[in-house]
Amino acid sequence: MLKENQQTILEKTGSSAINKIETIQELWSGYGSILRVYLSGGQFNSVIVKNIVQPELSNHPRGWDTETSNARKIKSYEVETNWYKNYNDQCDADSRIPKFIHFWENEGEYFILLEDLNDAGFPLRKSNLSLDEINGCLSWLANFHATFLNTDPDGLWEVGTYWHLSTRPDEYQKMDTNDLKKAASKLDHELNNCNYLTLVHGDAKVANFCFGEASNQVAAVDFQYIGAGCGMKDVAYFLGSVLSEDELALLEEELLSTYFKYLRNAVHSKEVKVDFFDLEQGWRRLYPIAWADFTRFLMGWMPTHQKLNRYSDKMVKMALELI
């Protein structure tokens, strides 16, 4: 890291020295990296730096290197920067996210400086969750959705999630012609024009949640695809990231009821003016439609994906009957 960037980190954190810099992970398709910077002499033991670099040649692991793909990724980092600058301080302890410290640009590279959630009490990353931990993530989503009900996504994605139809023409064209492909626009319209919109995380997979020692200690990261949407898009995507097809079939009703219980409580505690019965009825109807919408993306992007299974087939069938 260049000396001037290190100096910016020291100034913005009130630290006296950088002791170590480590790479946590490379960003998707070669667009930079996420770094952990260890500090001394200030209020932070460590901070996170998201270093964004537009590559001369994108290196997508599945070969999706198109102008559309590149433009989507570049916009996603602009959206994430706007999110941290303008929205993230609205999140409370029930929808915990890293605190924003600073943003700067230097020699064509962009830097987002954030609180390190490891140091803040969320050091665990998990791929398999207990039912209590799943409920903790559903509580996070419910509180997040309640906080941002009816929020104008100014500076964010007009439609949240990384797979929505208008940003995925390449994958749509790759799909075999079938009933789902023919219905794609209708499904997209249903989701984007429901009576109650919130901000959706847009990539709420289990890998983007951080955990503390207790099952209800949950925080989330990675806000590149945040934008307006129905909360079911996050819920369906999250559950699909952590449960097998058999578990989804077995636990669907229980987990949806748990999510809506948390959402009802959050709407009440945050004093959000909304007809909750009408919201729940509308969003429950959109749950299979959200699944079908994501399935449409997968069928074009990776038709052998493990999430294309009996449960997703069932959701597609239900969605097509609903529209």
Overview of the molecule:
This protein is α+β, with helices and mostly antiparallel strands and 323 residues long. The chain is 44% helix and 16% strand. The strands form 3 sheets. Strands 1-2-3-5-4 form a 5-stranded antiparallel beta sheet, with helices on both faces. Strands 6-9 form a two-stranded antiparallel ribbon. A two-stranded antiparallel ribbon has the order 7-8. A hairpin with a 6-residue loop joins strand 7 and strand 8. Helix 3 packs across helix 7.
Structural class: alpha+beta
CATH topology of the largest domain, what is it called?
A: Aminoglycoside 3'-phosphotransferase, Chain: A, domain 2
> Spans of 5+ residues with little confidence (pLDDT < 50)?
60-64
Counted up, domains total: 2
Query: Strand fraction band?
Result: 15-25%
Sheet with the most strands: spatial strand order: 1-2-3-5-4
Largest sheet: 5 strands, antiparallel
SSE pattern, N- to C-terminal: HEEEHEEHHHEEEEHHHH
CATH superfamily of the largest domain: Aminoglycoside phosphotransferase (APH), C-terminal lobe
Would you identify the CATH architecture of the largest domain? Alpha-Beta Complex
Rg from Cα: 20 Å
Rounded to the nearest angstrom, the distance between the terminal CA atoms is 53 Å
Shape: globular
Helix content: 40-55%
Q: Quote the average pLDDT.
A: 94
Task: Count the DSSP helices.
Answer: 9
The top-level CATH class of the largest domain is Alpha Beta
What is the number of strand segments?
9
